[in-house]
Amino acid sequence: MSFQAKKRAAGDRLIIKGGKIVNDDQSFYADIYIEDGTIRQIGENLIVPPGVKTLDAYSQLVIPGGIDANTNLQSPQKGLNPSDDFYQGTRAALSGGTTTIIDHVLVDPGTSLLSAFDQWKETAEQRACCDFSFHLDITRWHEGLYEELETLVKDKGVNSFLFFMAYKDRYQSSDSQLYEAFGVLRDLGAVAQVHAENGDIIDEEQKKLLSVGITGPEGHVLSHPEEVETEAVYRAITIAKQANCPLYVTKVMSKSAADVIAKARKKGVVVYGEPITAGLVTDGSHYWSKDWATAAAFVMSPPLNPDPSTPQYLTSLLACGDLQVTSSAQACFSTAQKAVGKDDFTLIPEGTNGIEERLSVVWDRAVSTGKMDENEFVAVTSTNAAKLFNIYPRKGRIAVGSDADIVIWNPKETRMVSAKTHNLNVEINILEGLELRGVPTVVISGGRVVVEDGQLNVTEGSGRFIPRKAFPDTVYKRIKARSKMAEARGVPRGNYDGPVHDVISMTKSIPPTPTTRGPTGPKTITGPRNLHQSGFTLAGAQIDDHIPRRSAQRIVAPPGGRSNITSLS
Questions:
Q1: In this structure, are strands 406-416 and 20-22 parallel, antiparallel, or unpaired?
Q2: Is the confidence at residue 536, as pLDDT, over 70?
Q3: 337, CA 20 to 30 Å: which among 211, 294, 512, 531?
Q4: Which among 355, 356, 379 is positioned nearest to 367, based on CA atoms?
């Protein structure tokens, strides 16, 4: 397997001095020497060439650059492209300490997967300011996709594919399609992802709400109740378990859905859950805002949960390892773009911001509150994603030979979130007014300083495509072991030589379901005569009609024993 990668210009020669290096498994004090975009030395009293730029990290943490494993910087909705594309989106990512993104390639039904991949890659290479990789979103599954999937995995460096359980009649896959697709991905060594919501129920709820005149953004959350996410997560896990395929659930937004994942993991199922920036810090009460533009800015699927205790609950599950990766699900649309759905909430383009605030949100809500330590912070913001999607230790770790994607992190500094100061085009920031503890003071991407002294200095098109090989060890060690254990084995036994009953094949007619909506048609009797049926009837006038009848007659003990009959009428 060979991947053609764009060569990046030589990075700066840098030495980071005095900081505390934090990886997912250990923390220690040492200096770091960087040359040509790679970490060359780690230790004390390093011998480095003259003219090297020194970065002071005293009293600060030195962490691997963040990896945002769920962005949608080019995925169109309702015919509209996101307001923040590969340039603006990766610029904001770097400002917040994220140095690598994995973007979703939304493949329109009937479009070649390979052509969509090539188009996304070409655009990102021209626009992205940081390194990037791709997931492929499968919007119509059929057997003919196998060759393209194989090419993408073996030759193009893609090892993850997303399927939709929602968006009926557009992108939604059936259970049988998911089962078949998961089996194919398992054999190719890829990771299956799902957008988990019950699309059939959502479709019916949307129609019902529109029919009674609910057209605003609140209709979105009302038509996506928590149960449709929870049910779909459980169903996806069941299918993946039966197919013995690793599963990654994107955008876990509710407590009950998170609980399903946690319970499955305790049983040993190979499944991973991803809460997002917005879900860890805000809730769905904003869908009822009197200001339509504000309410619409929060529209995304699955929606933010109206239960105000949800963010804290998801943070706790992230801290204890029941959820594994934090992403942003970045997909921003301007107010004017959102207004396409001003009279019909189903037409509002879905998506929110979070790519710039992600690391600060996790630090503020998990580390500063004592739920998570600095090593776990690095794991959920960088290392776990690198391991799951097979770019570790090139990414997600500070080690000799790793890419020089590094953040100098000040845990004591704070930042105020505001649309006036963020690095996005979108006019509304759904985290407006939040004060967050934990801020990147220096960001190094590919060996180049892109954030320093509050200044953002990026180069359009400097990002490289990062190919990812199949069969990531973190995931597939267990899958391979399960494959050996799960092989079906027949029971050795002799041939049965006893009597075999004769079976007469007959076609049975199925009676229509009783209905009160109209008279039933005449009954047609087919097949052999039923000897238990009789033509005898008591309909019509009878000879004893003049004798008054009692309403009920109890037979206590008739001849022959006690009877089951308790009344006659």
A1: unpaired
A2: no
A3: 211
A4: 379
pLDDT higher than 60, residue 60: yes
pLDDT tens string 273-302: 999 999 999 999 999 999 999 999 999 999
CB of 348 closer than 8 Å to CB of 341: yes
* Tens of pLDDT, residues 230-269: 999 999 999 999 999 999 999 999 999 999 999 999 999 9
Residue with tokens 């690598």: 100
Burial state string for 59-70 with b = 16 or more CB within 10 A and e = fewer than 16: ebbbbbbbbbbb
Q: Specify whether the CB–CB gap between 230 and 196 falls below 8 A.
A: no
- Alpha carbons 115 and 55: distance in angstroms, whole number: 43
Hey, which residues does 555 pair with through a beta bridge? none
CB contact at 8 A, 163 and 194: yes
Structure tokens at 128: 């992205």
Listed as own residue / partner, the contacts of 475-479 with beta carbons closer than 8 Å and 24 or more positions apart are: 475/191, 475/246, 475/270, 475/388, 476/189, 476/246, 478/268, 478/270, 479/186, 479/244, 479/245, 479/246, 479/270
Cβ contacts of residue 480 below 8 Å, gap of 6+? Answer: none
Total number of residues shown for the chain: 569
